[in-house]
Amino acid sequence: MSSLGQEVNTFWGNLLAGKSGVSAIESFDVSEYPTRIAASVKDFNPEDYIDKREARKMDRFVQFAVAASINALKSSGLNIQEDTDPERVGVYVGSGIGGLSTWEEQHKILLEKGPKRVSPFFIPMMIANMASGQISMITGAKGPNSTAVTACATGTHSIGDSFKLIQRGDADVMICGGAEATISPTGVAGFCALRAMSTRNDEPEKASRPFDTGRDGFVMGEGAGVLVLESLEHAQKRGAHIYAEVIGYGMSGDAHHMTEPDPDGAARCMIKAIKDAGIAPEDIDYINAHGTSTPVGDKSETSAIKKALGEHAYKVAVSSTKSMTGHLLGAAGGVEAVICGLTLENGIIPPTINLDDQDPECDLDYVPNVPRNSDVQVAMSNSFGFGGHNATIILKKYQA
């Protein structure tokens, strides 16, 4: 569920076409904002997925999460009530920020009309765990149910934690990923105040340009990325189509700075994921980079990849699909895990668009501007969040 499409085939086609989902913000007046662009989900109708009355009780990020989960389950062919034990199906869908739009709306009501007019649904609509809660209620999944809130690492932590829940026998199936909807007055203002976002307002499609000398900040995106993870035995028993296998998960903390990344922390995270997967650094064929298009972040990740992979760093293909989707914050890891699965399934690496003048300090192979046919066997996905939260997952091409 993203600016490039509301179902996976459209999304994948736009990625391979190198299409940007970034455009001018139209949902509120941005005339006084330094940044006036974002990667918004266009023409989203929650009633295509959710009863109208129930949809009104959900923040936009929850609506995205539920819609993506319904799509994921449909794609998986799994009927929770008929094909499996609902108590063995869990939900782990996180959000970096949660219901920011709901917070804004209800705070305005509080100031203008008083406390008695604040909605009784304010808190349940706003809290970040409600994505997992609503997905459980709608799908009937009664297994482990939790939420990660680790800024931009949220989606990857959610998938990695779900992988471990299945691995240790606590669930057979996990619906997992991330959702975010912060293209709102306060959300955009807050990131503008951090001077973290691009101000290339006259060329929205060219604003997100990871690893390029002209990058000047990230572009905010919104949406959700949700996967259905299963134990191999469970998937095989029901004849599921298997896109890829999750084989490794690493996490670390920088213990460094609120917003500035530390390449040592990111490198430790990748090394832990490689060790967990039981593979060598040389086995990595593709990395979907965190690659946010910030001056500091892209250099830091490049350094971290070199620390983690050694000389092999110069042989691995690296791309940042945020150049097209924008940065979906807590949903980014979910969307990018989907991309890794599709890359393994189809043997095509999506590009880093807008990479016209590569930064000399970012000197790896970033698959510039056009997709690349490649028989990728092992893919790594990185996510790094404010607070020094790092998460890495490794996926492998499934061999029946």
Summarize this entry quickly.
By secondary structure, this protein is α/β, with parallel strands linked by helices.
CATH level-two architecture of the largest domain: 3-Layer(aba) Sandwich
How much of the residues is beta strand, in percent? 15-25%
Average pLDDT rating:
97
Whole-angstrom Rg: 20 Å
Count of DSSP strands: 13
Please tally the helical runs, counting DSSP H or I stretches of 4 or more residues. 14
Order of helical and strand elements: HEEHHHEHHHEHEHEHEHEHEHHEEEE
Helix content: 25-40%
Silhouette: globular
Instruction: Characterize the main sheet.
Output: 5 strands, mixed
Q: What's the CATH H-level homologous superfamily of the largest domain? A: Thiolase/Chalcone synthase
Distance between the termini: 29 Å
Number of separate domains:
2
| Structural class label | alpha/beta
The strand order across the widest sheet is 7-13-12-8-9
CATH topology of the largest domain: Peroxisomal Thiolase, Chain A, domain 1
CATH level 1 class label of the largest domain: Alpha Beta
